[in-house]
Protein backbone atom coordinates (compact mmCIF):
# COMPACT_ATOMS: atom_id res chain seq x y z
CA UNK A 1 0.00 0.00 0.00
CA UNK A 2 2.71 2.45 0.93
CA UNK A 3 4.41 1.68 -2.39
CA UNK A 4 1.37 2.83 -4.27
CA UNK A 5 0.96 6.14 -2.52
CA UNK A 6 4.67 6.90 -2.79
CA UNK A 7 4.63 6.22 -6.49
CA UNK A 8 1.58 8.24 -7.30
CA UNK A 9 2.80 11.20 -5.31
CA UNK A 10 6.03 11.36 -7.31
CA UNK A 11 4.20 11.05 -10.58
CA UNK A 12 1.87 14.00 -10.15
CA UNK A 13 4.64 16.48 -9.35
CA UNK A 14 6.07 18.44 -12.24
CA UNK A 15 9.62 19.78 -12.62
CA UNK A 16 10.24 23.26 -11.28
CA UNK A 17 13.92 24.04 -11.81
CA UNK A 18 13.55 27.81 -11.32
CA UNK A 19 12.33 27.50 -7.73
CA UNK A 20 15.60 26.11 -6.43
CA UNK A 21 16.96 29.10 -4.52
CA UNK A 22 13.57 30.03 -3.08
CA UNK A 23 12.94 26.44 -2.02
CA UNK A 24 16.36 26.28 -0.43
CA UNK A 25 15.75 29.46 1.55
CA UNK A 26 12.39 28.14 2.64
CA UNK A 27 14.00 24.86 3.62
CA UNK A 28 16.69 26.60 5.66
CA UNK A 29 14.14 28.80 7.37
CA UNK A 30 12.04 25.78 8.27
CA UNK A 31 15.06 24.24 9.92
CA UNK A 32 15.92 27.30 11.94
CA UNK A 33 12.62 28.92 12.89
CA UNK A 34 11.98 26.78 15.96
CA UNK A 35 15.26 27.68 17.68
CA UNK A 36 14.87 31.27 16.60
CA UNK A 37 11.39 31.34 18.12
CA UNK A 38 12.77 29.79 21.31
CA UNK A 39 15.42 32.52 21.50
CA UNK A 40 12.87 35.32 21.07
CA UNK A 41 10.56 33.70 23.60
CA UNK A 42 13.29 33.30 26.23
CA UNK A 43 14.39 36.89 25.67
CA UNK A 44 10.81 38.13 26.08
CA UNK A 45 10.32 36.16 29.30
CA UNK A 46 13.30 37.86 30.92
CA UNK A 47 12.23 41.15 29.35
CA UNK A 48 8.95 40.90 31.25
CA UNK A 49 10.39 39.55 34.49
CA UNK A 50 13.35 41.89 34.94
CA UNK A 51 13.37 45.65 34.55
CA UNK A 52 17.15 46.18 34.14
CA UNK A 53 17.22 43.38 31.54
CA UNK A 54 15.31 45.63 29.14
CA UNK A 55 18.25 47.93 28.29
CA UNK A 56 20.18 47.95 25.03
CA UNK A 57 23.37 47.49 27.06
CA UNK A 58 22.10 44.14 28.26
CA UNK A 59 21.41 43.03 24.74
CA UNK A 60 24.89 44.12 23.66
CA UNK A 61 26.50 42.34 26.58
CA UNK A 62 24.68 39.13 25.64
CA UNK A 63 26.18 39.38 22.15
CA UNK A 64 29.53 40.37 23.59
CA UNK A 65 29.71 37.42 25.95
CA UNK A 66 28.43 35.09 23.30
CA UNK A 67 30.93 36.14 20.65
CA UNK A 68 34.13 34.52 21.92
CA UNK A 69 32.45 31.23 22.80
CA UNK A 70 30.47 31.31 19.55
CA UNK A 71 33.68 31.44 17.51
CA UNK A 72 34.93 28.34 19.34
CA UNK A 73 31.53 26.72 18.86
CA UNK A 74 31.68 27.24 15.07
CA UNK A 75 34.64 24.86 15.05
CA UNK A 76 32.79 22.45 17.31
CA UNK A 77 29.88 22.55 14.83
CA UNK A 78 32.12 21.38 11.99
CA UNK A 79 33.58 18.56 14.09
CA UNK A 80 30.17 17.38 15.37
CA UNK A 81 28.60 17.47 11.88
CA UNK A 82 31.40 15.19 10.68
CA UNK A 83 30.47 12.73 13.42
CA UNK A 84 33.49 13.62 15.55
CA UNK A 85 33.89 15.08 19.01
CA UNK A 86 36.58 17.36 20.39
CA UNK A 87 36.79 17.73 24.15
CA UNK A 88 40.23 19.32 23.98
CA UNK A 89 39.35 22.70 22.43
CA UNK A 90 39.17 24.36 25.86
CA UNK A 91 42.74 23.28 26.50
CA UNK A 92 43.86 24.29 23.00
CA UNK A 93 42.34 27.65 23.92
CA UNK A 94 44.57 27.76 27.03
CA UNK A 95 47.75 26.75 25.20
CA UNK A 96 47.21 29.25 22.40
CA UNK A 97 46.48 32.03 24.90
CA UNK A 98 49.76 31.31 26.68
CA UNK A 99 51.77 31.00 23.45
CA UNK A 100 50.46 34.29 22.08
CA UNK A 101 51.06 35.84 25.50
CA UNK A 102 54.68 34.73 25.45
CA UNK A 103 55.13 35.96 21.88
CA UNK A 104 53.81 39.39 22.84
CA UNK A 105 55.01 39.93 26.41
CA UNK A 106 58.35 38.12 26.37
CA UNK A 107 59.54 38.26 22.74
CA UNK A 108 57.81 41.56 21.96
CA UNK A 109 56.76 40.27 18.55
CA UNK A 110 54.46 42.47 16.47
CA UNK A 111 50.77 41.72 17.01
CA UNK A 112 50.09 40.22 13.53
CA UNK A 113 53.02 37.81 13.92
CA UNK A 114 51.87 36.74 17.39
CA UNK A 115 48.34 36.19 16.05
CA UNK A 116 49.64 34.05 13.19
CA UNK A 117 51.76 31.96 15.57
CA UNK A 118 48.71 31.43 17.77
CA UNK A 119 46.47 30.42 14.87
CA UNK A 120 49.14 28.04 13.58
CA UNK A 121 49.55 26.44 17.00
CA UNK A 122 45.80 25.94 17.34
CA UNK A 123 45.49 24.38 13.89
CA UNK A 124 48.45 22.11 14.64
CA UNK A 125 47.06 20.86 17.97
CA UNK A 126 43.66 20.26 16.37
CA UNK A 127 45.24 18.37 13.48
CA UNK A 128 47.19 16.31 16.03
CA UNK A 129 43.89 15.21 17.64
CA UNK A 130 42.59 14.10 14.27
CA UNK A 131 45.80 12.40 13.21
CA UNK A 132 46.09 10.36 16.42
CA UNK A 133 42.50 9.15 15.99
CA UNK A 134 42.93 8.24 12.35
CA UNK A 135 46.22 6.42 12.92
CA UNK A 136 45.34 4.56 16.13
CA UNK A 137 41.60 4.04 15.75
CA UNK A 138 41.11 5.14 19.37
CA UNK A 139 37.66 6.79 19.69
CA UNK A 140 37.41 10.58 19.48
CA UNK A 141 36.08 10.78 23.02
CA UNK A 142 39.22 9.17 24.46
CA UNK A 143 41.78 10.87 22.22
CA UNK A 144 40.41 14.34 22.87
CA UNK A 145 39.91 13.61 26.57
CA UNK A 146 43.63 12.84 26.59
CA UNK A 147 44.18 16.09 24.68
CA UNK A 148 42.11 17.94 27.28
CA UNK A 149 44.55 17.15 30.07
CA UNK A 150 47.74 16.95 27.99
CA UNK A 151 47.28 20.38 26.35
CA UNK A 152 46.32 21.84 29.72
CA UNK A 153 49.56 20.54 31.17
CA UNK A 154 51.43 21.98 28.24
CA UNK A 155 49.86 25.40 28.87
CA UNK A 156 50.87 25.25 32.55
CA UNK A 157 54.48 24.34 31.74
CA UNK A 158 54.73 27.13 29.17
CA UNK A 159 53.21 29.71 31.51
CA UNK A 160 55.08 28.85 34.70
CA UNK A 161 57.29 31.66 36.00
CA UNK A 162 56.21 34.05 33.29
CA UNK A 163 54.30 37.28 33.49
CA UNK A 164 51.97 37.21 30.52
CA UNK A 165 50.22 40.56 30.61
CA UNK A 166 50.27 44.16 29.40
CA UNK A 167 50.00 43.57 25.68
CA UNK A 168 50.53 46.33 23.07
CA UNK A 169 47.52 48.48 22.12
CA UNK A 170 47.67 47.21 18.55
CA UNK A 171 46.81 43.78 19.95
CA UNK A 172 44.25 44.85 22.56
CA UNK A 173 42.11 46.39 19.81
CA UNK A 174 41.02 42.85 18.86
CA UNK A 175 39.13 42.38 22.09
CA UNK A 176 38.01 45.89 22.83
CA UNK A 177 34.37 46.59 23.50
CA UNK A 178 31.57 44.50 22.12
CA UNK A 179 31.77 45.54 18.52
CA UNK A 180 35.09 44.08 17.36
CA UNK A 181 34.59 40.55 18.80
CA UNK A 182 31.02 40.60 17.49
CA UNK A 183 32.15 41.52 13.98
CA UNK A 184 34.82 38.82 14.10
CA UNK A 185 32.19 36.35 15.30
CA UNK A 186 29.91 37.13 12.35
CA UNK A 187 32.88 36.95 9.98
CA UNK A 188 33.94 33.56 11.33
CA UNK A 189 30.37 32.25 11.24
CA UNK A 190 29.93 33.42 7.65
CA UNK A 191 33.17 31.79 6.50
CA UNK A 192 32.42 28.56 8.35
CA UNK A 193 28.92 28.52 6.89
CA UNK A 194 30.26 29.02 3.36
CA UNK A 195 32.80 26.27 3.99
CA UNK A 196 30.15 23.82 5.13
CA UNK A 197 27.56 24.52 2.46
CA UNK A 198 29.54 25.54 -0.61
CA UNK A 199 32.77 23.54 -0.65
CA UNK A 200 33.57 19.92 -1.33
CA UNK A 201 35.40 19.35 1.96
CA UNK A 202 32.52 20.98 3.86
CA UNK A 203 29.91 18.80 2.16
CA UNK A 204 31.97 15.72 2.93
CA UNK A 205 31.60 16.57 6.64
CA UNK A 206 27.85 15.93 6.32
CA UNK A 207 28.48 12.77 4.31
CA UNK A 208 31.00 11.35 6.78
CA UNK A 209 28.88 12.29 9.78
CA UNK A 210 25.78 10.86 8.10
CA UNK A 211 27.24 7.54 7.04
CA UNK A 212 30.99 7.11 7.16
CA UNK A 213 30.96 3.77 5.33
CA UNK A 214 28.90 5.07 2.40
CA UNK A 215 31.23 8.06 2.18
CA UNK A 216 34.27 5.77 2.12
CA UNK A 217 32.76 3.47 -0.49
CA UNK A 218 31.87 6.53 -2.58
CA UNK A 219 35.53 7.43 -2.75
CA UNK A 220 35.68 10.14 -0.08
CA UNK A 221 39.03 10.24 1.70
CA UNK A 222 37.48 9.97 5.15
CA UNK A 223 40.70 9.90 7.16
CA UNK A 224 42.26 12.96 5.55
CA UNK A 225 38.99 14.90 5.75
CA UNK A 226 38.64 14.13 9.45
CA UNK A 227 42.06 15.59 10.18
CA UNK A 228 41.00 18.79 8.41
CA UNK A 229 37.81 19.10 10.50
CA UNK A 230 39.74 18.80 13.76
CA UNK A 231 42.25 21.28 12.39
CA UNK A 232 39.44 23.78 11.78
CA UNK A 233 38.20 23.13 15.32
CA UNK A 234 41.67 23.94 16.67
CA UNK A 235 42.04 26.99 14.45
CA UNK A 236 38.76 28.49 15.68
CA UNK A 237 39.60 27.68 19.31
CA UNK A 238 42.82 29.64 18.74
CA UNK A 239 40.87 32.55 17.23
CA UNK A 240 38.65 32.66 20.30
CA UNK A 241 41.66 32.47 22.63
CA UNK A 242 43.37 35.38 20.90
CA UNK A 243 40.26 37.55 21.26
CA UNK A 244 39.93 36.67 24.91
CA UNK A 245 43.50 37.48 25.95
CA UNK A 246 43.23 40.71 23.94
CA UNK A 247 40.13 41.56 25.94
CA UNK A 248 41.56 40.57 29.34
CA UNK A 249 45.04 41.94 28.63
CA UNK A 250 46.60 38.88 30.26
CA UNK A 251 46.99 35.17 29.52
CA UNK A 252 46.60 32.34 32.01
CA UNK A 253 46.71 28.56 31.58
CA UNK A 254 43.47 28.20 33.55
CA UNK A 255 41.45 30.08 30.92
CA UNK A 256 39.23 28.07 28.61
CA UNK A 257 38.21 25.59 31.28
CA UNK A 258 34.92 23.86 30.32
CA UNK A 259 34.67 25.98 27.17
CA UNK A 260 34.42 22.78 25.11
CA UNK A 261 31.31 21.83 27.08
CA UNK A 262 29.71 25.25 26.61
CA UNK A 263 30.47 25.03 22.90
CA UNK A 264 28.97 21.54 22.58
CA UNK A 265 25.95 22.72 24.56
CA UNK A 266 25.39 25.70 22.25
CA UNK A 267 25.78 23.54 19.14
CA UNK A 268 23.28 21.00 20.42
CA UNK A 269 20.79 23.59 21.69
CA UNK A 270 20.95 25.18 18.22
CA UNK A 271 19.86 21.90 16.70
CA UNK A 272 23.01 20.42 15.17
CA UNK A 273 22.87 16.67 15.64
CA UNK A 274 25.22 15.17 18.20
CA UNK A 275 25.21 12.08 15.99
CA UNK A 276 26.58 13.87 12.93
CA UNK A 277 25.28 14.52 9.44
CA UNK A 278 22.98 17.44 10.18
CA UNK A 279 23.45 20.99 11.40
CA UNK A 280 24.89 24.40 10.65
CA UNK A 281 26.61 27.44 12.12
CA UNK A 282 23.52 29.65 12.00
CA UNK A 283 21.90 27.26 14.46
CA UNK A 284 25.01 27.35 16.63
CA UNK A 285 24.95 31.15 16.84
CA UNK A 286 21.32 31.04 17.94
CA UNK A 287 22.11 28.23 20.39
CA UNK A 288 24.90 30.29 21.92
CA UNK A 289 22.63 33.35 22.17
CA UNK A 290 19.96 31.24 23.89
CA UNK A 291 22.50 30.05 26.44
CA UNK A 292 23.91 33.51 27.12
CA UNK A 293 20.45 35.04 27.34
CA UNK A 294 19.53 32.50 30.00
CA UNK A 295 22.76 33.08 31.92
CA UNK A 296 22.48 36.89 31.79
CA UNK A 297 18.72 36.82 32.45
CA UNK A 298 19.05 34.55 35.46
CA UNK A 299 21.79 36.69 36.97
CA UNK A 300 19.58 39.77 36.56
CA UNK A 301 16.93 37.87 38.49
CA UNK A 302 19.47 37.25 41.25
CA UNK A 303 19.84 33.55 40.59
CA UNK A 304 23.26 32.26 41.70
CA UNK A 305 25.89 30.92 39.31
CA UNK A 306 25.48 27.42 40.71
CA UNK A 307 21.77 27.38 39.95
CA UNK A 308 22.50 28.77 36.47
CA UNK A 309 24.77 25.79 35.86
CA UNK A 310 22.01 23.42 36.89
CA UNK A 311 19.64 25.17 34.48
CA UNK A 312 22.12 24.93 31.59
CA UNK A 313 22.66 21.25 32.36
CA UNK A 314 18.97 20.53 32.16
CA UNK A 315 18.67 22.48 28.90
CA UNK A 316 21.50 20.47 27.32
CA UNK A 317 19.80 17.19 28.20
CA UNK A 318 16.48 18.48 26.90
CA UNK A 319 18.08 19.59 23.62
CA UNK A 320 19.70 16.19 23.06
CA UNK A 321 16.45 14.47 23.99
CA UNK A 322 14.74 16.53 21.32
CA UNK A 323 17.41 15.47 18.80
CA UNK A 324 16.97 11.80 19.72
CA UNK A 325 13.20 12.11 19.53
CA UNK A 326 13.31 13.77 16.11
CA UNK A 327 15.58 11.01 14.81
CA UNK A 328 13.35 8.19 15.98
CA UNK A 329 10.18 9.82 14.67
CA UNK A 330 11.49 9.95 11.11
CA UNK B 1 30.28 -23.79 -20.06
CA UNK B 2 29.10 -22.94 -23.53
CA UNK B 3 29.60 -19.32 -24.46
CA UNK B 4 28.88 -17.51 -27.69
CA UNK B 5 32.35 -16.84 -29.09
CA UNK B 6 31.41 -13.26 -30.00
CA UNK B 7 31.18 -12.13 -26.36
CA UNK B 8 34.42 -10.59 -25.14
CA UNK B 9 35.48 -11.26 -21.59
CA UNK B 10 35.59 -7.88 -19.88
CA UNK B 11 36.57 -9.09 -16.43
CA UNK B 12 38.41 -12.22 -15.41
CA UNK B 13 39.04 -13.01 -11.75
CA UNK B 14 41.05 -16.02 -10.66
CA UNK B 15 41.47 -17.61 -7.24
CA UNK B 16 39.72 -14.87 -5.24
CA UNK B 17 39.98 -15.71 -1.54
CA UNK B 18 39.14 -13.98 1.67
CA UNK B 19 40.09 -15.34 5.08
CA UNK B 20 39.07 -13.81 8.39
CA UNK B 21 41.63 -15.38 10.70
CA UNK B 22 40.80 -19.07 10.44
CA UNK B 23 37.43 -18.50 8.81
CA UNK B 24 37.37 -18.88 5.05
CA UNK B 25 34.67 -16.58 3.69
CA UNK B 26 35.68 -16.97 0.06
CA UNK B 27 37.69 -19.93 -1.20
CA UNK B 28 39.53 -19.51 -4.49
CA UNK B 29 36.61 -18.39 -6.64
CA UNK B 30 37.02 -17.83 -10.38
CA UNK B 31 34.70 -15.60 -12.31
CA UNK B 32 34.31 -14.25 -15.83
CA UNK B 33 32.11 -11.41 -16.96
CA UNK B 34 31.28 -11.05 -20.65
CA UNK B 35 30.71 -7.72 -22.29
CA UNK B 36 27.07 -6.61 -22.23
CA UNK B 37 25.71 -9.46 -20.10
CA UNK B 38 23.88 -9.54 -16.80
CA UNK B 39 25.54 -12.11 -14.57
CA UNK B 40 23.57 -13.24 -11.54
CA UNK B 41 25.38 -14.32 -8.38
CA UNK B 42 23.20 -16.57 -6.25
CA UNK B 43 23.74 -18.59 -3.10
CA UNK B 44 22.45 -19.18 0.38
CA UNK B 45 23.12 -16.79 3.25
CA UNK B 46 26.80 -16.95 4.10
CA UNK B 47 27.73 -18.44 0.73
CA UNK B 48 30.15 -15.57 0.11
CA UNK B 49 28.20 -13.45 -2.36
CA UNK B 50 28.72 -10.13 -0.63
CA UNK B 51 32.30 -11.02 0.22
CA UNK B 52 32.97 -11.74 -3.45
CA UNK B 53 31.64 -8.36 -4.48
CA UNK B 54 33.44 -6.50 -1.72
CA UNK B 55 36.74 -8.14 -2.61
CA UNK B 56 36.17 -7.40 -6.29
CA UNK B 57 35.46 -3.71 -5.66
CA UNK B 58 38.17 -3.04 -3.09
CA UNK B 59 35.72 -2.46 -0.23
CA UNK B 60 37.68 -5.10 1.71
CA UNK B 61 41.16 -6.41 0.98
CA UNK B 62 41.50 -9.86 -0.54
CA UNK B 63 43.68 -12.64 0.87
CA UNK B 64 44.59 -13.97 -2.57
CA UNK B 65 43.62 -13.80 -6.22
CA UNK B 66 44.05 -11.76 -9.38
CA UNK B 67 41.72 -9.61 -11.43
CA UNK B 68 42.13 -8.86 -15.14
CA UNK B 69 40.14 -6.40 -17.22
CA UNK B 70 40.37 -6.78 -20.97
CA UNK B 71 43.33 -9.11 -20.45
CA UNK B 72 45.26 -6.58 -18.35
CA UNK B 73 45.89 -7.31 -14.71
CA UNK B 74 44.45 -4.53 -12.51
CA UNK B 75 45.18 -3.78 -8.85
CA UNK B 76 41.99 -2.94 -7.00
CA UNK B 77 42.67 -2.25 -3.34
CA UNK B 78 40.26 0.60 -2.59
CA UNK B 79 36.80 1.64 -3.81
CA UNK B 80 38.53 4.48 -5.64
CA UNK B 81 40.67 2.00 -7.61
CA UNK B 82 37.51 0.16 -8.66
CA UNK B 83 35.88 3.39 -9.83
CA UNK B 84 39.00 4.31 -11.78
CA UNK B 85 38.81 0.91 -13.49
CA UNK B 86 35.23 1.69 -14.58
CA UNK B 87 33.38 -0.35 -11.94
CA UNK B 88 30.41 1.24 -10.20
CA UNK B 89 28.89 -0.56 -7.23
CA UNK B 90 25.56 -0.33 -5.43
CA UNK B 91 26.03 -1.88 -1.99
CA UNK B 92 23.02 -3.15 -0.13
CA UNK B 93 22.01 -0.65 2.61
CA UNK B 94 25.11 1.39 1.83
CA UNK B 95 24.03 3.17 -1.30
CA UNK B 96 23.02 6.64 -0.12
CA UNK B 97 23.72 8.96 2.79
CA UNK B 98 20.32 9.75 4.35
CA UNK B 99 21.32 13.26 5.34
CA UNK B 100 22.46 14.39 1.90
CA UNK B 101 20.28 15.67 -0.92
CA UNK B 102 19.71 13.53 -4.00
CA UNK B 103 22.09 15.66 -6.06
CA UNK B 104 24.80 15.50 -3.41
CA UNK B 105 24.37 11.73 -3.15
CA UNK B 106 24.65 11.34 -6.91
CA UNK B 107 27.94 13.22 -6.94
CA UNK B 108 29.36 12.13 -3.57
CA UNK B 109 33.09 11.66 -3.96
CA UNK B 110 33.00 13.02 -7.51
CA UNK B 111 31.56 16.50 -7.07
CA UNK B 112 31.74 19.00 -9.90
CA UNK B 113 33.68 22.10 -8.93
CA UNK B 114 33.08 25.62 -10.15
CA UNK B 115 35.32 26.51 -13.04
CA UNK B 116 36.34 29.90 -11.61
CA UNK B 117 38.98 30.56 -8.93
CA UNK B 118 36.62 29.61 -6.07
CA UNK B 119 36.49 26.07 -7.43
CA UNK B 120 40.23 25.78 -7.87
CA UNK B 121 41.17 27.50 -4.63
CA UNK B 122 38.47 26.43 -2.18
CA UNK B 123 36.84 23.47 -3.88
CA UNK B 124 33.59 25.43 -4.33
CA UNK B 125 30.86 23.19 -5.72
CA UNK B 126 28.96 23.83 -8.93
CA UNK B 127 25.45 22.98 -7.71
CA UNK B 128 23.75 24.45 -10.81
CA UNK B 129 25.65 22.16 -13.16
CA UNK B 130 25.17 19.10 -10.92
CA UNK B 131 21.42 19.74 -10.60
CA UNK B 132 21.07 20.11 -14.34
CA UNK B 133 22.95 16.90 -15.05
CA UNK B 134 20.94 14.94 -12.49
CA UNK B 135 17.62 16.21 -13.88
CA UNK B 136 18.64 15.37 -17.43
CA UNK B 137 19.67 11.84 -16.42
CA UNK B 138 16.50 11.22 -14.40
CA UNK B 139 14.45 12.30 -17.37
CA UNK B 140 16.35 9.96 -19.66
CA UNK B 141 15.86 7.03 -17.27
CA UNK B 142 12.26 7.97 -16.54
CA UNK B 143 12.96 8.40 -12.82
CA UNK B 144 10.27 10.69 -11.48
CA UNK B 145 12.01 12.52 -8.66
CA UNK B 146 11.59 16.28 -8.72
CA UNK B 147 12.83 17.54 -5.37
CA UNK B 148 16.46 16.58 -5.94
CA UNK B 149 17.67 18.89 -3.17
CA UNK B 150 15.61 17.15 -0.51
CA UNK B 151 17.55 14.77 1.69
CA UNK B 152 17.57 11.11 0.68
CA UNK B 153 15.86 10.05 3.93
CA UNK B 154 12.63 11.60 2.60
CA UNK B 155 12.29 9.11 -0.28
CA UNK B 156 10.86 5.61 -0.54
CA UNK B 157 12.99 2.47 -0.89
CA UNK B 158 12.20 2.24 -4.58
CA UNK B 159 13.10 5.83 -5.26
CA UNK B 160 16.35 5.47 -3.33
CA UNK B 161 17.26 2.37 -5.27
CA UNK B 162 16.45 4.19 -8.51
CA UNK B 163 18.85 6.96 -7.48
CA UNK B 164 21.57 4.44 -6.65
CA UNK B 165 21.12 2.72 -10.01
CA UNK B 166 21.14 6.08 -11.80
CA UNK B 167 24.50 6.72 -10.17
CA UNK B 168 25.92 3.64 -11.87
CA UNK B 169 24.62 4.93 -15.22
CA UNK B 170 26.17 8.33 -14.62
CA UNK B 171 29.60 7.10 -13.58
CA UNK B 172 29.89 3.42 -14.49
CA UNK B 173 32.08 3.21 -17.54
CA UNK B 174 32.19 -0.56 -17.89
CA UNK B 175 30.76 -2.63 -15.08
CA UNK B 176 27.83 -2.15 -12.70
CA UNK B 177 27.87 -4.31 -9.59
CA UNK B 178 24.60 -4.57 -7.69
CA UNK B 179 24.13 -6.18 -4.28
CA UNK B 180 20.49 -7.28 -4.07
CA UNK B 181 18.97 -4.30 -5.87
CA UNK B 182 15.43 -5.36 -4.98
CA UNK B 183 15.91 -6.37 -1.34
CA UNK B 184 13.31 -4.62 0.82
CA UNK B 185 11.35 -3.38 -2.17
CA UNK B 186 7.68 -3.98 -2.90
CA UNK B 187 6.52 -5.82 -6.01
CA UNK B 188 5.93 -2.72 -8.07
CA UNK B 189 9.14 -1.03 -6.94
CA UNK B 190 11.11 -4.21 -7.71
CA UNK B 191 9.72 -4.12 -11.21
CA UNK B 192 10.85 -0.52 -11.57
CA UNK B 193 14.33 -1.35 -10.27
CA UNK B 194 14.71 -4.36 -12.54
CA UNK B 195 13.69 -2.32 -15.57
CA UNK B 196 16.48 0.08 -14.62
CA UNK B 197 18.90 -2.86 -14.35
CA UNK B 198 17.91 -3.85 -17.87
CA UNK B 199 18.51 -0.32 -19.09
CA UNK B 200 22.03 -0.43 -17.60
CA UNK B 201 22.71 -2.95 -20.35
CA UNK B 202 21.40 -0.53 -22.95
CA UNK B 203 23.82 2.05 -21.62
CA UNK B 204 26.72 -0.23 -22.46
CA UNK B 205 27.35 -1.62 -19.00
CA UNK B 206 28.01 -5.21 -18.09
CA UNK B 207 26.23 -6.13 -14.87
CA UNK B 208 27.03 -8.38 -11.92
CA UNK B 209 24.00 -8.76 -9.68
CA UNK B 210 23.56 -10.56 -6.39
CA UNK B 211 19.99 -11.72 -5.97
CA UNK B 212 17.79 -14.10 -4.01
CA UNK B 213 14.96 -13.83 -6.49
CA UNK B 214 14.93 -16.77 -8.95
CA UNK B 215 12.30 -14.99 -11.03
CA UNK B 216 14.70 -12.12 -11.59
CA UNK B 217 17.48 -14.54 -12.53
CA UNK B 218 15.26 -16.20 -15.12
CA UNK B 219 13.80 -13.00 -16.55
CA UNK B 220 16.63 -10.51 -16.48
CA UNK B 221 19.97 -12.36 -16.41
CA UNK B 222 22.08 -14.03 -19.09
CA UNK B 223 24.25 -16.26 -16.92
CA UNK B 224 24.19 -17.30 -13.30
CA UNK B 225 26.99 -18.31 -10.93
CA UNK B 226 26.17 -20.26 -7.80
CA UNK B 227 28.23 -19.93 -4.63
CA UNK B 228 28.05 -22.44 -1.80
CA UNK B 229 30.01 -22.20 1.45
CA UNK B 230 32.48 -19.74 -0.05
CA UNK B 231 33.17 -21.88 -3.12
CA UNK B 232 32.03 -21.64 -6.72
CA UNK B 233 29.42 -24.39 -7.07
CA UNK B 234 28.31 -23.88 -10.67
CA UNK B 235 28.12 -21.47 -13.61
CA UNK B 236 25.26 -21.84 -16.08
CA UNK B 237 23.62 -20.08 -18.97
CA UNK B 238 20.21 -19.05 -17.75
CA UNK B 239 18.55 -20.57 -20.83
CA UNK B 240 20.04 -23.97 -19.92
CA UNK B 241 18.76 -24.08 -16.37
CA UNK B 242 15.41 -24.09 -14.58
CA UNK B 243 14.46 -22.76 -11.18
CA UNK B 244 14.41 -26.14 -9.43
CA UNK B 245 17.88 -27.06 -10.63
CA UNK B 246 19.15 -23.68 -9.50
CA UNK B 247 17.68 -24.12 -6.02
CA UNK B 248 19.23 -27.59 -5.93
CA UNK B 249 22.62 -26.13 -6.78
CA UNK B 250 22.25 -23.45 -4.11
CA UNK B 251 21.35 -25.88 -1.35
CA UNK B 252 23.77 -28.56 -2.52
CA UNK B 253 21.17 -31.25 -3.26
CA UNK B 254 22.06 -31.08 -6.97
CA UNK B 255 25.75 -31.51 -7.78
CA UNK B 256 27.14 -29.64 -10.74
CA UNK B 257 27.95 -32.11 -13.50
CA UNK B 258 29.39 -29.50 -15.81
CA UNK B 259 32.11 -28.48 -13.38
Please provide a written account of the structure:
- The complex is a heterodimer of chains A (330) and B (259).
- With 330 residues, chain A is an all-alpha fold.
- In chain A, α3 runs antiparallel to α11, α4 packs antiparallel against α5 and α5 runs antiparallel to α11.
- Chain B has 9 helices and 10 strands.
- Chains A and B meet through α1, α2, α9 and α10 of A and α2, α5 and α7 of B.
Query: Cα-atom Rg of chain B, whole angstroms?
Result: 19 Å
Q: List the uncertain runs of chain B.
A: 1-5
Written as H for each helix and E for each strand, in order along the chain, the element string of chain B is EEEHEEHEHHHHEHEHEEH
Question: Into which percentage range does the β-strand content of chain A fall?
Answer: under 5%
Largest sheet entry of chain B: 6 strands, mixed
Low-confidence spans of chain A: pLDDT under 50, at least 5 residues?
1-18
- Biggest sheet strand line-up of chain B: 6-7-8-3-9-10
Assembly status: heterodimer
User: What is the 3D form of chain A?
Assistant: globular
| CATH architecture label name of chain A | Orthogonal Bundle
User: How large a portion of the residues of chain B is in β-strands, by DSSP E?
Assistant: 25-35%
Return the structural class of chain B.
alpha/beta
- Please report the two chains with the greatest interface, counting residues with C-beta closer than 8 angstroms to the partner's C-beta: A-B, 38 and 40 residues
User: What would the average pLDDT of chain B be, to the nearest integer?
Assistant: 90
User: Count the strands of chain B?
Assistant: 10
CATH structural architecture of the largest domain in chain B: 3-Layer(aba) Sandwich
The biggest beta sheet of chain A reads: none
* H/I helix tally of chain A: 14
Radius of gyration of chain A: 21 Å
The total count of strands of chain A amounts to: 0
According to CATH, the fold-level topology of the largest domain in chain B is Rossmann fold
Amino acid sequence: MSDMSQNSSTQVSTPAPVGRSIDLLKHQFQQIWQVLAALVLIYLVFFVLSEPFRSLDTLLSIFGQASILAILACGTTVVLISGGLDLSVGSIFAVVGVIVGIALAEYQLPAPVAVLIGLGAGALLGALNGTVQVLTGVPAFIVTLGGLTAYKGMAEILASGRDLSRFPDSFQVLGSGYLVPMLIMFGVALLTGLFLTKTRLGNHAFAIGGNEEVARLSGVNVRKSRIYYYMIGGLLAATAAILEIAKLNFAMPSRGQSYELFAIAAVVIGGTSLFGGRGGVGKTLIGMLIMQTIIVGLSYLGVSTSVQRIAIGIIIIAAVYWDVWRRSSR
Amino acid sequence: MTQPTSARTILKARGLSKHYGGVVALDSVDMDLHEGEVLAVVGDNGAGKSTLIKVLTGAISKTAGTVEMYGQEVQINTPTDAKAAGMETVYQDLALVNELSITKNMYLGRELLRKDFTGRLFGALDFARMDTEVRALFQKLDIRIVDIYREAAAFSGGQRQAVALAKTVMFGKRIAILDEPTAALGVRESQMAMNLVRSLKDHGLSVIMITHNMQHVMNYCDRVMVLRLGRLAAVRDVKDVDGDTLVGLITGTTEDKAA
